[in-house]
UniProtKB/TrEMBL annotation:
Cofactor(s) required for function per UniProt: FMN
Family membership: Belongs to the NADH:flavin oxidoreductase/NADH oxidase family.
Protein's UniProt keywords contain Zinc: no
Entry keyword set: Oxidoreductase
GO CC annotation, single: cytosol
Domain called NADH:flavin oxidoreductase/NADH oxidase N-terminal: residue spans: 6-331
Name the UniProt record assigns to this protein: Alkene reductase
Segments traversing the membrane: none
SUPFAM superfamilies according to UniProt: FMN-linked oxidoreductases
Length: 345
C-alpha cells in the first residue's frame, strides 16, 4: 500500500491491474490524418502518458456517419485499426494500459461532414447553435433513424469493439455522455419516438443496453461513460432523471468494467444533493471513475470518501504530459490553456 491513495494499485478486473488510480480522460484532439487514421505524433502523445493507471483514448468514430468534427480519429477501416495498433503497442511497451472510447455524434453534426447527408438521430430535432470550427453554419435538422438504421448502429458499435480488440486495446469505453447519439436516446427533448425506442425509460435505454450486450460479445472489458443530468448539447426535461435512475440501476446487471462520469465540472448539483459521481455511486455498485475539474488533492479526497475508485484527469494532462511524476514528487503543475490544443505535446 502506498501512503498516497492515488498511487495504490487497483484491480480493475481479475486480469487487469492498474498501477495507480489516475486515469487519462478521453479528449478528442482532432489531429487524425485525412483518412481519420491516428498519426505517429498521436502515438507518441499517448505513450508519454503511459504512466497513468489507465489511458482512455479520445472518442473514435464507429462509422462514417458518426463524424461531427474535422479530423476526429476513427476505428472502422483496416488502416485505422492498423494505426491504433501502433498506438497501443507504444503504450504497452511503456507498461501502460489503454481503452478505446467508441462514439457516434448523432445530431451533433452537419452535412459538411456527411457527404451532404443529414445527421442521424433518434428524432428530427435540431441542436440549437453554430457548428464549431465553421464560418457560420447552424446545426442541421437531423433525420429520425429507421429501425434498420438503429440495428445497423448497434452492429457498428460491436464491430468497432471487435476492431479495438484486433488493435490490441485492453478494453473499450462506450461513449453515452455529453449529448451524443446514445445520450440523445436517453433524453426526452431529443427522443420523441413512439416506437420501441422511445416513450418510456425502458424504451429510451433499449439502444444503450443492446449496444452494451453486443459490444461485450466482442471484447471482455467494457466501460461506459454517462453524464446523467449533465446538459451538454441537450435541453433539460424534468422526466430525464427517472431515465438515468433506471439506467444506473440496470447497469448493475451488465458486468461492466466501470462506469465513468462524463462531466466538465463534477460540482454539487442541487437537485441531486451531491455531485454527479456521488449520484452514480448511489445507484451503481461497480467500479466508478470520477471526472470533471479534479486535481490531485480533490481526487484523493474523493477516493478517501469512497465517492469513486479512480480519478480521470483531462486538461491538466494536456498541460502536463508528466502529470503523474509531478504529482508523485509534489512538483508544481503547468496551468492548462486552450491554446495548448493547437499542438500535440
Ligand atoms: C479538448 C477536449 C476534448 C474532449 N474530448 C472528449 C472526448 O473525446 N470524449 C469524452 O467523453 N469527453 C471529452 N472531453 C471531456 C473530458 O473527458 C473531461 O470530461 C473534461 O475535460 C473534464 O475533465 P478535466 O476537468 O479534468 O479536464 C474533452 C475535453 C476536452 C478539454
Amino acid at each position: 500500500m502506498n501512503q498516497d491513495i492515488l498511487f495504490n494499485h487497483f484491480d480493475l478486473s481479475g486480469d487487469l491491474t492498474l498501477s495507480n488510480r489516475i486515469v487519462m480522460a478521453p479528449m478528442n484532439r482532432s489531429m487524425a490524418d485525412d483518412d481519420l487514421v491516428p498519426t505517429d505524433a498521436m502515438a507518441d502523445y499517448y505513450a508519454r502518458r503511459a504512466d497513468t493507471g489507465l489511458i482512455i483514448t479520445e472518442s473514435l468514430m464507429i462509422s462514417p456517419s458518426a463524424q461531427g468534427y474535422p479530423n476526429t480519429p476513427a476505428i472502422f477501416t483496416p488502416a485505422q485499426v492498423a494505426g491504433w495498433e501502433k498506438v497501443v503497442r507504444k503504450v504497452h511497451a511503456k507498461g501502460g494500459k489503454i481503452f478505446a472510447q467508441i462514439w457516434h455524434t448523432g445530431r451533433v453534426s452537419h452535412p459538411i461532414y456527411l457527404n451532404g447527408e443529414k445527421p442521424l438521430a433518434p428524432s428530427a430535432v435540431a441542436l440549437k447553435g453554430r457548428v464549431p470550427r465553421t464560418d457560420d453554419l447552424q446545426y442541421a435538422v437531423p433525420r429520425e433513424m429507421t429501425e434498420a438504421e438503429i440495428r445497423q448502429m448497434i452492429q457498428d458499435f460491436a464491430q468497432a469493439a471487435a476492431n479495438a480488440r484486433e488493435a490490441g486495446f485492453d478494453g473499450v469505453e462506450v461513449h453515452a455522455a455529453n449529448g451524443y447519439l446514445l445520450d440523445q436516446f436517453l433524453h426526452w427533448d431529443t427522443n420523441r419516438r413512439t416506437d420501441d425506442w422511445g416513450g418510456s425509460a425502458e424504451n429510451m435505454a433499449r439502444i444503450l443496453f443492446e449496444v452494451l450486450g453486443a459490444v461485450k460479445l466482442e471484447i471482455p472489458h467494457v466501460g461506459l461513460r454517462v453524464s446523467p443530468v449533465g446538459y451538454l448539447h441537450l435541453e433539460h426535461d424534468d422526466r430525464d432523471k427517472a431515465v438515468s435512475d433506471y439506467v444506473l440501476q440496470r447497469l448493475n446487471h451488465y458486468g461492466l468494467t466501470y462506469v465513468h462520469t462524463g462531466m466538465f465540472e463534477d460540482s454539487e448539483q442541487e437537485h441531486l444533493a451531491g455531485t454527479v459521481t456521488q449520484y452514480i455511486r448511489s445507484l451503481y455498485q461497480g467500479t466508478v471513475i470520477a471526472c470533471g475539474g479534479y486535481d490531485a488533492e480533490r481526487g484523493r479526497e474523493a477516493l478517501h470518501k469512497g465517492d469513486a475508485d479512480l480519478i480521470a484527469i483531462g486538461r491538466p494532462l494536456i498541460a502536463n504530459p508528466d502529470f503523474v511524476e509531478k504529482v508523485r514528487t509534489r512538483q508544481p503543475l503547468t496551468t492548462y490553456s486552450a491554446e495548448m490544443l493547437n499542438e500535440l505535446v
